[in-house]
Each structure stands twice: as C-alpha cells, then as structure tokens.
Design goal:
By secondary structure, the protein is α+β, with helices and mostly antiparallel strands. 40% of the residues lie in helices and 34% in strands. The protein is globular. InterPro entries: Dimeric_a/b-barrel (IPR011008), DUF1330 (IPR010753).
C-alpha cells in the first residue's frame, strides 16, 4: 500500500533549499519516493498552523517502511543538516496516510 505525506515549509533561502532538493532527491528515489505535487505558495488564506508556509508538497513512497527508512538514512540526515536546516525556517507534516 502506497504512503503519502503532505508537508508545509517556510523556505527562507531559495538557493540553499534548491541545493537541499538536488542533494536529497537521489536518496529519496533510492527509497521508492517521489514528489507528487510541489507548490510555491504566495498567499496563505487559511491554515491551522501557527507559522506561515510558502511551499507545500506531497511525497509518495511505496509504503510507510520506505518512508521511515528514508528519513532515518544517515546520508539523508547529513544532507538535511547541511542544507535544509539553514534554508528552512519552519516545517510541518500536514498529513500522512496510506493509499
């Protein structure tokens, strides 16, 4: 059963975030993950979050185990530390579910 997560982030450094995406994408694919949607948000009209987000995306994995393996992969964690943490001011998983 496929597994999807919807994520909202506030990107504060576009170049750093692009470097993160380029570095993490091959790792994501290794775990049978891919982006279903990737949206840039210029105006947030309603949100249950305390923070404002300017990017929303959906990632689909083949199953939840692949998702968990991706997010705990040491290579991914190094990329996250190097690029994501410096370029994103806020992130939240909005929803996760099996389809």
């Amino acid at each position: 059963m496929a597994h999807e997560i919807h994520v909202g982030v506030r990107v504060e450094d576009e170049a750093g975030y692009q470097a993160y995406r380029e570095a993490m994408y091959p790792i994501l694919q290794k775990y049978q993950g891919d982006f279903v949607f990737d949206l840039s948000v210029d105006k947030l009209l309603k949100s249950p979050l305390q923070e404002v987000v300017n990017r929303v995306f959906i990632i689909r994995f083949s199953d939840q185990e692949e998702r968990d393996a991706f997010f705990s992969d040491p290579e991914y964690l190094a990329v996250k530390h190097k690029y994501f943490e410096a370029s994103v001011g806020y992130s939240a998983i909005l929803r996760a579910y099996d389809i």
